Amino acid sequence: MKDIKSFNETDRYAIANRITELREGRGYKSMEMAHFMDIHRSTYSDIECGHVKLSTDNLYKLCQIFDVSADYVLFGKEIDMESVKIRCILEKQNPGKAKKIAEALYLMFES
Length: 111
Hints:
The protein is mostly helical. The chain has 7 helices and no strands. Helices cover 71% and strands 0% of the residues.
């Protein structure tokens, strides 16, 4: 079984730092972010300072505003959208055809 760690203060500050970097990278002010998210400015400030845990609702809004995945906000991991598209195509195929497509892709990229 995979080792699952508990959410801690270090994680909260890492998330807060990613949110701050995203905001600054887009040139938004904290007050604008609070307005976009329909929350009080002090609440937004608390999120960026890591003083509060990020709610699902606010995470959802941030992902939309910055056009990033929740994986990026929470863990700093980028999602390869091309891989997601390929997985969706394969899931729509019958198992035999999906296996052949996967084998062909493997041969193309492992050569």
